[in-house]
């Protein structure tokens, strides 16, 4: 049985500049931040990031790693608007491909099912078409209700990723994994929308396969299986500073310090020097532990 | 109840409750402080079949509007993915807060100014605006009614208004309804021939002139504008003792 375990830096070595990368989680919740930090340590750039966006999007934009963001929203939850993302957009530094969040779900689902698009009413009458050149319209082959003319619908094209990065609570060395919090968001779809080779799962803890169901608490939570995964990273506290319910809550102080770093280039440089210019994830986590003890 | 004792936030909570009257067994999904209080007031009084969220992944039966603990009464699991099944199936009435709204109910909270490639002010993004408004009933909540929010033309149409919906194939627009806009000054609806926004009632202490001055476009004005329904003693009791005991609605809505 393949052992897919590796370090965050080894996992990120699978990625290349210019790739389209899907990032799991939602807002400031269960983001694969240990993998994001590994990207920040790498020489990757010119990335297209698809995300139900939070600090993952903002921090990559601030570090100059991003050419384009595919999004329906970017938010830090407690701080509704992501300041680093806003600065990048308002400065014209990153391009955008915008979706309604339900369209985003359909785009990932179409890619996962290997079909060219999924039809929906979502987007009709709104300006989302003007903000996303990939969206098109398609006429239903069927008559409308009560003999009305066929409906014209929005065709949401498949969002084919080159790689996907997600963070779960528990997994095994083979790539099976579970979420034990209230919501897995769209993480399984991100993995299914990415090709073999680029599917990376970090977990709070790795257990033996024999203990996986027990660690998950219930087989319904085992939503990721090894057919969907190429690399497994054990990353305790790896979603920090975002939450990983029920293991830990959002680190509000750390999020606030991160947000404050958007005030000026000097503030960002100071934040980057203190928190991101570290040798590896273990050094980051040791520093987080030190700050918490203080 | 005497006029002097009426607080503006309580009037707003009752007006927000009233938008759900007659909705029956659907998800009432008011987003924001006073909308959450109003939705729970509707369920605790005249609309008991409504289901409501904990703002996370469950629908809960609790009457209190926030701060639920492990003892919350969970009716069902409703994670984000499941919300799309619910909203595309139509069993939902959402309340969102616009940054801009126009005379026909087109709504923006995505960006202000600039271009799609470089907005002058990047806001949230389209979020669920297009899908919500084309799929089921929508209302809006504006905690501070000003001419910066009520504008002739919105910069980005996130939520679809009546003129845009009217230009679609009627089959595609058949689930579209903007029911009401509740603000700290008044209640607005679209009960006009061309669906232009209409002043339906003013809150106690507010004049028609106050609303007109705070609105950046021409409202439809009936000959007689009634005063918004006042809270009953029972409603005031529920708000104070059960639904919003910390008085968070008073932080969002100041008294005149």
Total discrete domains of chain B: 1
Strand fraction of chain A equals: 15-25%
Give start-end ranges of low-pLDDT stretches of chain A.
none
At the first level of CATH, the class of chain B is Alpha Beta
What is the strand arrangement across the widest sheet of chain B?
1-5-10-11-12-13
What's the shape of chain A? Answer: globular
The main β sheet of chain B shows up as: 6 strands, mixed
- Overall mean pLDDT of chain B: 97
**Helical proportion of chain B, percent range:** 25-40%
Radius of gyration of chain A: 20 Å
CATH superfamily of the largest domain in chain A: Glutaconate Coenzyme A-transferase
The helicity of chain A comes to 25-40%
Which second-level CATH architecture of the largest domain in chain A applies?
3-Layer(aba) Sandwich
Shape of chain B: globular
By DSSP, the count of extended strands of chain B is: 13
Describe this structure in words.
The complex is a heterodimer of chains A (294) and B (256). Chain A has ten helices and eleven strands. Chain A has 294 residues and is an alpha/beta fold. Chain A has two domains: 8-99 and 160-290, 3-Layer(aba) Sandwich (Glutaconate Coenzyme A-transferase); 116-157, no CATH class. The N and C termini of chain A lie far apart (44 Å). Chain B is of the alpha/beta class. Helix content of chain B is 26%, strand content 19%. Chain B has helices spanning 8-18, 33-44, 80-89, 129-135, 162-166, 208-213, 233-243, 248-252; strands at 27-30, 52-53, 58-60, 74-77, 92-96, 100-101, 107-108, 111-112, 121-122, 137-142, 177-183, 186-189, 198-202. In chain B, the strands form four sheets. Chain B has a six-stranded mixed beta sheet, sandwiched between helices. In chain B, α5 (162-166) links the parallel β10 (137-142) and β11 (177-183). Chain B is globular. Chain B starts with 7 loop residues before the first helix and ends with a helix. The chains are: A alpha/beta (294), B alpha/beta (256). At the A-B interface, α4, β4 and α5 of A face α3, β9 and α4 of B.
């Amino acid at each position: 049985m393949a052992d897919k375990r590796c370090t965050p830096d080894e996992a990120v070595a699978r990625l290349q500049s210019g790739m389209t990368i899907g990032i799991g989680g939602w807002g400031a919740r269960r983001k694969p931040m240990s993998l994001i930090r590994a990207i920040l340590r790498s020489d990757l750039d010119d990335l297209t990031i698809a995300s139900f966006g939070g600090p993952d999007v903002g921090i990559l934009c601030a570090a100059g790693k991003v050419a384009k963001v595919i999004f329906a929203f970017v938010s830090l939850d407690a701080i509704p608007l992501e300041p680093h993302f806003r600065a990048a957009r308002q400065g014209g530094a990153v391009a955008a491909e915008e979706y309604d969040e339900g369209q985003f779900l359909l785009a990932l689902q179409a890619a996962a099912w290997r079909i060219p698009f999924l039809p929906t009413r979502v987007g009709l009458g709104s300006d989302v078409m003007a903000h996303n050149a990939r969206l098109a319209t398609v006429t239903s082959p069927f008559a409308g209700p009560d003999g009305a003319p066929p409906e014209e619908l929005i065709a949401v094209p498949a969002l084919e990723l080159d790689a996907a990065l997600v963070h779960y609570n528990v997994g095994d060395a083979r790539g099976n994994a579970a979420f034990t919090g209230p919501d897995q968001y769209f993480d399984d779809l991100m993995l299914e929308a990415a090709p073999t080779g680029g599917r990376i799962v970090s977990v709070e803890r790795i257990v033996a396969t024999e203990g996986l169901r027990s660690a998950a608490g219930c087989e319904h939570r085992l939503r990721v299986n090894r057919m969907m995964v190429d690399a497994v990273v054990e990353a305790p506290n790896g979603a920090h500073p975002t939450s990983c319910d029920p293991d830990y809550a959002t680190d509000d102080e750390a999020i606030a310090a991160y947000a404050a770093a958007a005030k000026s280039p000097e503030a960002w440089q100071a934040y980057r020097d203190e928190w991101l210019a570290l040798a590896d994830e273990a050094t980051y986590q040791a520093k987080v532990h030190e700050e918490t003890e203080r | 109840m005497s006029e002097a004792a009426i607080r503006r936030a309580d009037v707003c909570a009752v007006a927000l409750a009233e938008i759900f009257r007659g909705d029956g067994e659907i998800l009432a999904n008011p987003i924001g402080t006073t909308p959450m209080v109003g939705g729970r007031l509707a369920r605790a009084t005249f609309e008991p079949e409504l289901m409501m969220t904990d703002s996370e992944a469950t629908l809960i039966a609790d009457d209190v509007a926030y701060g639920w603990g492990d003892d919350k009464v969970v009716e069902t699991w409703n994670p984000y993915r499941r919300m799309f099944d619910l909203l595309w199936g139509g069993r939902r009435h959402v309340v969102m807060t616009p940054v801009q709204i126009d005379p026909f109910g087109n709504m923006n909270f995505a960006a202000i100014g600039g271009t799609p490639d470089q907005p002058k002010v990047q806001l949230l993004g389209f979020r669920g605006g297009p899908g919500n408004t084309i799929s089921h009933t929508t209302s809006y909540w504006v905690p501070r009614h000003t001419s910066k929010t009520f504008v002739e033309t919105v910069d980005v149409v996130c939520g679809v208004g009546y003129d845009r919906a009217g230009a679609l194939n009627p089959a595609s627009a058949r689930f579209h309804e903007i029911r009401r806009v509740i603000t700290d000054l008044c209640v607005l609806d679209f009960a006009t021939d061309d669906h232009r926004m209409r002043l339906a009632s003013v809150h106690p202490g507010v004049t028609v002139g106050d609303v007109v001055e705070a609105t950046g476009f021409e409202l439809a004005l009936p000959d007689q504008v009634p005063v918004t329904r006042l809270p009953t003693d029972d409603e005031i009791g529920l708000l104070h003792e059960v639904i919003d005991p910390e008085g968070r609605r008073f932080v969002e809505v100041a008294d005149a």
